[in-house]
């Protein structure tokens, strides 16, 4: 049994991800609290997320020095090799010799393998990044796939759409550590006052540029232990996701529908903009997730959200043309948040992506039927794939001429700079890209219901 050191825990968690198909972020949330030192908790998170993100590159480097396939090794030994190689190639603060020695110690739990781990990792250290990559010109998809650890089917899609240079830039950003953004709870505190409060709690804080409530934070331990968090002064939400409520633009006293609302980040932001006046029907198909919405609303001091159980394709109890504002943040492939979800790239397949638009369109159509004449409908995803975004919106516009696009140039809380973004926004759509905007990959489209007889 591997001792529960930081590296030992990383081996166990990575093994569970590979064997059980468990989600790394949930495993980390449930397990790292057993480590008392915050530095150990941060190190486990670094190792697990780093190995998952860079797994294909690590395996490519390791295979050069193995006489047998990785698949023939015990899962735990694979994890030990990957953790060792990750530290050697990617973590400057860990001396390579220390990474090797610690990996060999872990391998002693598997008596046949300490020697193999020692030899292979020493060769990785000697070679460093002197790795014989596939030829970029002759095999661009394979090169980008193994060099930046992305599935080849995904690289092929992006190359066809954007070419090698932009695809490489996107891959690089996807492998960077995700930044932590929070949203000020303006029902309780101003952004400036929250910034000063967080600084007094020892946290590095930077004002966001896209959204008036956003703050980027660094150098923090467990957020849930902060008094400011416990008091409901903020919640964690990426800056791109915070844009949605501003585009919906709800007013105090209005009726608002959030069709796919869990865990409640966007619903509670809508409530803030409504000054906690009016009504928000927050639907989700999972009962246990509805509890999360209620808990977040209570913590933030919000009383106008009504969590509702139901399929967004049906929205039971919601009358036709009854809502001033409707938000449709549909289930999607999530391919815009690969840097935030380290294991997500290995959980997706192209066929699954191609099956999503039919579900998304069904949800959008039912949601659209709930919008009042003159009311607005906002569709959003955290993906960058056209089938789920531009193509779906085009299909909706053809099927529903009673909905006209709303110019986003004036609706956004920040000024667009690039010509292609401005052209999109004039047509009521915006695609944010990690390598171009510094946000998660995120898509927005806004429509207004008009009376076709007018």
TrEMBL record:
Q: Which UniProt keywords apply?
A: Cytoplasm, Methyltransferase, RNA-binding, rRNA processing, S-adenosyl-L-methionine, Transferase
Give the residues annotated as coiled coil: none
Query: Which residue numbers delimit the SAM-dependent MTase RsmB/NOP-type domain?
Result: 170-450
Q: Which domain of life is it from?
A: Bacteria
Which Enzyme Commission number(s) are listed?
Answer: 2.1.1.176
The positions flagged as active site in the entry are 382
Q: Which reaction does it catalyse?
A: cytidine(967) in 16S rRNA + S-adenosyl-L-methionine = 5-methylcytidine(967) in 16S rRNA + S-adenosyl-L-homocysteine + H(+)
- GO biological process: what's one of them? regulation of DNA-templated transcription
A GO cellular component annotation in the UniProt record: cytoplasm
Binding residues for S-adenosyl-L-methionine: 260-266, 284, 311, 329
Q: Where in the cell is it found?
A: Cytoplasm
Primary site of residence? cytoplasm
Q: Name one GO molecular function term.
A: rRNA methyltransferase activity
Q: What class of enzyme is it?
A: transferase
Query: Tell me, what does this protein do in biology?
Result: Specifically methylates the cytosine at position 967 (m5C967) of 16S rRNA.
UniProt family annotation = Belongs to the class I-like SAM-binding methyltransferase superfamily. RsmB/NOP family.
Entries under PANTHER family matching the protein = NOP2 YEAST -RELATED NOL1/NOP2/FMU SUN DOMAIN-CONTAINING, RIBOSOMAL RNA SMALL SUBUNIT METHYLTRANSFERASE B-RELATED
Name recorded for this polypeptide: 16S rRNA (cytosine(967)-C(5))-methyltransferase
Which source organism does the UniProt entry give? Desulfosporosinus meridiei (strain ATCC BAA-275 / DSM 13257 / KCTC 12902 / NCIMB 13706 / S10)
Q: What is the lineage of its organism?
A: Bacteria, Bacillati, Bacillota, Clostridia, Eubacteriales
């Amino acid at each position: 049994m591997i001792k529960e050191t930081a590296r030992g825990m990383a081996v166990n968690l990575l093994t569970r991800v590979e064997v059980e198909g468990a989600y790394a972020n949930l495993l980390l949330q449930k397990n790292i609290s057993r480590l008392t030192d915050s530095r150990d908790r941060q190190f486990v998170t670094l190792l697990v997320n780093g190995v998952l993100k860079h797994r294909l590159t690590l395996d490519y480097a390791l295979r050069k020095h193995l006489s047998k396939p990785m698949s023939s090794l015990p899962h735990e030994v694979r994890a030990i090799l990957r953790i060792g190689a990750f530290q050697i190639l990617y973590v400057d603060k860990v001396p390579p010799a220390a990474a090797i020695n610690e990996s060999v110690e872990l391998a002693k739990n598997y008596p046949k393998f300490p020697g193999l781990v020692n030899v292979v990792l020493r060769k990785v250290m000697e070679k460093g990044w002197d790795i014989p990559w596939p030829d970029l010109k002759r095999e661009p998809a394979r090169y980008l796939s193994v060099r930046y650890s992305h599935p080849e089917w995904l690289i092929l899609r992006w190359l066809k759409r954007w070419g090698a240079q932009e695809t490489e830039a996107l891959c690089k950003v996807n492998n960077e550590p995700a930044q932590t953004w929070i949203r000020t709870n303006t029902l309780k505190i101003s952004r400036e006052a929250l910034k000063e409060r967080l600084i007094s709690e020892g946290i590095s804080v930077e004002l966001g540029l896209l959204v008036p409530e956003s703050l980027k934070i660094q150098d923090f331990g467990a957020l849930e232990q902060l008094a400011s968090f416990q008091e409901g002064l903020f919640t964690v939400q990426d800056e791109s996701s915070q844009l949605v409520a501003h585009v919906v633009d709800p007013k105090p006293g209005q009726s608002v529908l959030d069709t796919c609302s869990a865990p409640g980040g966007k619903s509670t932001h809508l409530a803030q903009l409504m000054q906690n006046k009016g009504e928000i029907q927050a639907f989700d198909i999972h009962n246990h997730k509805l509890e999360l919405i209620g808990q977040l609303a209570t913590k933030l001091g919000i009383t106008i959200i009504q969590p509702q159980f139901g399929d967004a394709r049906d929205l039971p109890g919601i009358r036709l043309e009854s809502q001033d504002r409707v938000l449709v943040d549909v289930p999607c492939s999530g391919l815009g948040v690969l840097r935030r979800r380290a294991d997500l790239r290995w959980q997706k397949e192209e066929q699954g992506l191609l099956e999503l638009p039919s579900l998304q369109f069904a949800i959008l159509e039912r949601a659209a039927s709930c919008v009042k004449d003159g009311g607005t409908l906002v569709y959003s995803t955290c993906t960058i794939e056209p089938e789920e975004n531009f193509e779906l919106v085009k299909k909706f516009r053809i099927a529903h001429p009673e909905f006209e696009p709303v110019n986003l140039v004036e609706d956004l809380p920040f000024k667009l700079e690039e010509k292609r973004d401005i052209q999109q926004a004039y047509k009521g759509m915006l695609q944010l890209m990690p390598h171009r905007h510094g946000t998660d990959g995120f898509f927005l489209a806004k429509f207004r219901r008009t009376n076709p007889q007018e």
